[in-house]
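Subject line: Sequence and fold of a protein, written as structure tokens
Enclosed: The protein record, placed directly beneath this head.
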Amino acid sequence: MQIYGASKALGIGTVMTMKDKYTPLVIVLRVYKQTLKAAPWSGILSPLYYLLESIFPVFITIISARLFNGIYAYSQGRTEAEPLFFYGGALLAGYVVKQILQFISNITINAGVYERCTDYHKQAIAHKSSRLPLILYEDSETMNIKARATDCVNREILSQIYMSSAVFATSAISIISLVSVLASYNLLFILLSLLTVIPYFIARRLRGKDFYALKKRQTTRVRYRDYLWEMFNDKTAVKEMRTMGFDQYLRERFKETRVEIDKELWEFSKKDALSLLFCDTIRVIGYTASVVLALVLTISGKINIGLFGASIGAFLSVQNETKKFLMDLGSLPEKIAFAKDYYTFLDLTEEQKGSVQKKGLSNSIRLEQLEFTYPNAAAKMIKGINLEIHKGEKIAVIGENGSGKTTLSKLILGLYPVQHGTVTYDGEALTGLDQEALFQMISIIPQDFMRYSLTLRENICISDLGRTNVDRDILDVLAMVDLDIDPAGLDRTLGREFDGLELSGGQWQKLSIARGLFKKSEIIVMDEPTSALDPLIENQILMNFLTVAQGKTAIIVSHRTGLCRHVDRIVVMKAGEIVEVGSHSELIQRDGEYTRLYTTQEQWYV
């Protein structure tokens, strides 16, 4: 027996460990690759802007020093005024050019590196979600990873990594250039400017690690909080909670969960703010010391009054650039940790697709020693199932709720992976069949049907919109499910969400059945398709279904026994096992589990 745990769900191989697979360098390279693919021009121009910006503080420092010296010399009558206009004009021009470039870069960065890349990453998550094995949606750890990956994208962490890594190089150029300028004044300026901003790196490193640990610890509670919130946005849930009077209880549960999460975030924010306050204090002390040092050097005649102003400006620039560099560097491990969740989700093992093109069923579907266990569950849901379903046969799989009927149907269709035993179509293992080709020959009418806020036409024929004579076929299946709709209303939107026609719960379920019947398929599976309908109406719809299913292989999963007298065979399940197989008359004669179920419901159909 194979139980899907977190490690299996992650799809992580034994050759390469998580640590080896998701090193910071690997993650940064993957971020670069995706960014340049999603927004190539923005990805290239943004670092170039930062490169020019890194040179700007040095330019300002040099021009300012010459301007101040010129002003001082002019006040002493030792020079003309023309150089002052030149340096003043150069300084003004520098600021104008910087503002223009900053305006352009803001558009480039926000619209390209952030918005376009975020949209790209969201599409990547959606693309991956659509290709994951459905069984992973039963695993809570997989859902936690998906939630953290989505949070990483929504908070634009990946774009921040790209921009931070681009800023590192440009900040380093700026710092080296400014340090060179400061060194020409006095080496103590360098020592003061660097030492007084190092605490920022330490604070970012420690707080970033704590913040990721907190967010990871909160994942399940955040998903639970969001689940409670979604119920207040679901009209069906709102109706029930209002009429049953438990809306106040759910509001309190939501409030308690939200307050609990926010309290932890608030406590972290206080620690983070205190850390930054301590760092800011050290930085201000350092700046004050630099002013004192500049005054001492000016008074002692080691630097002139022009260099006094320039040295203070250069010191402040070094502090700011170094602070930005160290804070980005310190927060990078935190961002890498969030990015690792994103790439872990993208690297989950996708649905395995076989290569055998199955065009139709020739003989039978065979199940041998089939067993199945849900993730994080100890007990088997399916236990040693052996069954053969012949081409064109009508099978009813019945049993009480929780007997394993729906799980068995998902294993037959390949929606859940076979953990033990085999499922074969005409002798071909299900795992070797091309899934897309397989689903072309299968139609599914699920128990948990969807209510699509689309037109009536789209709701029914969404699987084959290009079919000829589609309106005639739509009206035929509507008649089969006893849903009376005016042909002129096929293009009317359904559902009140977009001011469309609202249907009752039973009508929506009939529409779901019509959608399944509309698809041209060789195998059709109905999973509790009429649970919201009156038993008499259910019986009529199922009889119509059997008429439509002539020549097809049909599997009807239900806990009701109304149509069992009209199918070829009945498969009775109990506690994950097949306890009886036979026709209606054969099973009645046995006086076993089927007889008990049938006699209990007999008054509904007689």
